[in-house]
């Protein structure tokens, strides 16, 4: 069992930055994948970014590439999402997720999910 708790969501103006955190506890493996997804009002949940706990590889959605950066702390138990140059279309609930084995996927095929944290970007 893995527990995930996100934090860091807030209202922000367009062009601003935020850093989201996801504290993970429970049994994971070095090749466990940790990822971020988001769901905007009226839309389906979509992939944002993911990485192996080893740090390699990483993968980003085209819509956030070069603006968002995923990372972990030294213990690989806290996942971060640094979000720069935020746009109103980035407004969503952001959730972290863990896929114990099987490698990075952009689908929703992850084993554990957090409750999410709200990011609201105003123009």
Number of strands: 11
Output the number of helix runs: 0
Helical amount among residues, as a percent range? under 10%
How would you sum up the major sheet? 7 strands, mixed
H and E order: EEEEEEEEEEE
Overall shape: globular
Q: Roughly how many Å apart are the termini?
A: 40 Å
| Proportion of residues in β-strands | over 45%
Uncertain stretches of 5 or more adjacent residues: none
The pLDDT mean sits at 96
Given helix and strand content, the structural type is mainly beta
Report Rg: 13 Å
Please specify the SSE layout and strand pairing.
Blueprint: E1 2-7, E2 11-13, E3 18-26, E4 33-39, E5 46-52, E6 58-60, E7 68-72, E8 78-83, E9 92-99, E10 112-113, E11 117-122
Parallel strand pairs: 2-11
Antiparallel strand pairs: 1-3, 3-8, 4-5, 4-9, 5-6, 7-8, 9-10, 9-11
Labels describing this entry:
mainly beta, four-stranded antiparallel sheet, seven-stranded mixed sheet, 0% helix, 123 residues, 11 strands
Describe the protein.
This protein has 123 residues and is mainly beta. It is built from no helices and eleven strands. The protein has strands spanning 2-7, 11-13, 18-26, 33-39, 46-52, 58-60, 68-72, 78-83, 92-99, 112-113, 117-122. Strands 2, 4, 5, 6, 9, 10 and 11 form a seven-stranded mixed sheet that branches. The chain has a four-stranded antiparallel sheet with strand order 1-3-8-7, with no helix packed on it. The chain starts with a strand and ends with a strand. The mean pLDDT is 96.
